[in-house]
Amino acid sequence: MNKAFQRILVTGATGFVGHHIVPVLKNNLDAEIIAVGKRDFDLLEPGMAGKMLRKINPDCIVHLAAKSGGILDNKQKPADYYFENIVINTHLFHAACFGGVKKFMGLMGGCSYPAAARSPIGEDQMWDGFPQIESAGYSMAKKMLLVQSWAYRQQHGFNSITLVPGNIYGEWDNFNLTTAHVIPALIRKCIEAKENRLPFIAALGSGRPIRDFVYAGDVAAVLPWFLNNYNNSEPVNISTGKRTSIRELVETVKAAAGYPGEIRWDPSQPEGQLEKIFDPGRLNQLGLQCPTPLAEGLRRTVKWFLENRAKGTVRL
């Protein structure tokens, strides 16, 4: 194992992606992994970022803490999503630069790419326009990680990297129908409709948009390589590059959940860009990939949902 770092702090470790990443870091890096969540340190509180770093004294940070949610919640609360993310990122990044941290890794969403970006979307399109308006508050706040990374590297020589996962799904996701992303919302709808013997479920939009989904376990698996080997402020897409229509996604979720009913589409609901596929070329050139097939990733997620709903440990 590599001994590049002594103590790695993972913020937002109790969230969806954190549940995947923390075990991977513990198994692949010869370092102490300190996993914290909002209950440990509320990074919205003034001075909390510095207080946390002084207490833990990490030499590396994997920053996952964020306010995130589905498109409907983003549309209703753009100011909340902007404010909370810009505050958390700005204060933690600045404290890390002057708090003895050797390397900072942050994640941002693919929604930060311009709404008019051409698929497959390469990293060189990041600054070619404004993100889709439905989630622009969140998207622009997260996009500032790239500006921070460049500015602090330029002036202070601070080593930070920003990775751009595609549409992540998997175990430990948020299954609340108001704030969930499309896959966990569909999984819950299909399972509950099956259990209640409902003849149909409603799906937002037309089903025509095409997306690129990446299993959370695959995202987690590549992070140790980036911590050990990548030292550049240029972002890297972490995704599959494979095209899946929302209509095809719904049918695949139905199969994974064993739901035999009908899908009724509601074209009056927002559905974002018609096509959004992330180019994994830069990732693949580094010798990395996200190999889990969508059907297999969905099977694992459905199995986890059923097992953990019974335990009362699923966010509903």
Could you give the topology of this structure?
Elements: E1 7-11, H1 16-28, E2 32-35, H2 48-56, E3 60-63, H3 71-76, H4 78-97, E4 103-107, H5 136-156, E5 160-165, E6 167-169, H6 182-195, E7 200-204, E8 210-211, E9 213-215, H7 216-229, E10 236-238, E11 244-245, H8 246-257, E12 262-266, E13 275-276, H9 281-285, H10 294-311
Parallel strand pairs: 1-2, 1-3, 3-4, 4-5, 5-10, 6-9, 7-12, 8-13
Antiparallel strand pairs: 8-11
Note down, in words, how this protein is organized.
The protein has 316 residues and is of the alpha/beta class. It has a domain at 7-169 and 213-238: Rossmann fold. It has 10 helices and 13 strands. The strands form 4 sheets. The protein has a 6-stranded parallel beta sheet, sandwiched between helices. Strands 11-8-13 form a 3-stranded mixed beta sheet. The longest helix has 21 residues, at 136-156.
Characteristics:
single chain; 316 residues; alpha/beta; Rossmann fold; six-stranded parallel β-sheet; three-stranded mixed β-sheet; 10 helices; 13 strands; 42% helix
| Helix and strand element order | EHEHEHHEHEEHEEEHEEHEEHH
Q: What is the CATH domain class of the domain at 7-169 and 213-238? A: Alpha Beta
Order of the strands making up the biggest sheet: 2-1-3-4-5-10
Looking at the overall shape, the CATH architecture of the domain at 7-169 and 213-238 is 3-Layer(aba) Sandwich
The amount of beta strand, in percent, is 15-25%
Shape: globular
Give the count of helical stretches.
Answer: 10
Rg from Cα: 19 Å
Spell out the CATH superfamily of the domain at 7-169 and 213-238: NAD(P)-binding Rossmann-like Domain
Give me the CATH fold name of the domain at 7-169 and 213-238. Answer: Rossmann fold
Mean pLDDT equals 94
Helix content range of the residues, please? 40-55%
- The N- and C-terminal alpha carbons lie at a distance of 38 Å
Assembly type of the chains comes to single chain
- The tally of strands reads 13
Largest sheet: 6 strands, parallel
Stretches where pLDDT falls below 50 for ≥5 residues? none
Q: Which structural category fits the helices and strands?
A: alpha/beta
